[in-house]
Known about the structure:
alpha+beta; Alpha-Beta Plaits; 2 domains; 7-stranded mixed β-sheet; two-stranded antiparallel sheet; 10 helices
Amino acid sequence: MPWETGDQETNPADTVTDASEHTSARYLLLLDILGFRDAVRERAAEEIYAIIDHALESFDRWERLNNAFKTIYFSDTILFYQDPPGYGDWAFLDAYAVGALLLASLLGKKIPVRGSISFGQFVVRKDSRRKHDVYFGKALIEAYEAAQRENWIGITVEHSAWKVHEHHNPGTIDAYQREGVWLRRHDGVLLLNPFLRIMGWFQHNKIEPINLPYDQWDSPEFPDGLRGFRFLVDRANEFANSGDYSNRVAVKYHSTVAFLRAILGTECFQWADDASRSF
């Protein structure tokens, strides 16, 4: 990332609770493409361009479908931010739901990413000569630092993002957890489930079996989810088969698959494992 955050640390518990005082705040999803620097060193420029272009396809699609979020891209970092700013329940719901679908889509393209969702000040505007795009803000610093702390492949929902929603909708965060949307970690950070469509169609299939090939059902979200699931499980298995449980890359995949087993449950995980093999 092309910025430094300074020396003063902030307490993640010191977050927004009254959205009415933050009409200029926005929801922001930051995603870093993992392994990007090594890929740039080792691969041809056209290969790297293809990876980036492939990744941005998913963001372009959700910009068109959603109309309330925009994308900024730089090097290995993609920002998906709410526009216009200002708190709304819809913005939180869109941020986590679209974030989960974007993560599943990227994983389905075998592009591993790590990121965070924050809420707060994020300035996006032209310079006074209207030549350069300027962007900065507390939400960006929080999301960047949060993502850097993690050692998995996934998205965290930070205190600033969920506490303001809970303030206006008491009890909903726990209700969403019971539905499998996320797991609340011991520090209060939410670990987002990228495979909500898999969970939904698993329950549907128990009542009324899916009667189409999986790659044609609820496309592209459901097939993307299965491809993404397969990518993570296969990579973790590759490391396990070589006895590798401890190097920094292997740990990311092992911890992510362990999280998926917890959030999906044994039966759903096994169904996804079986279904994704059809690809």
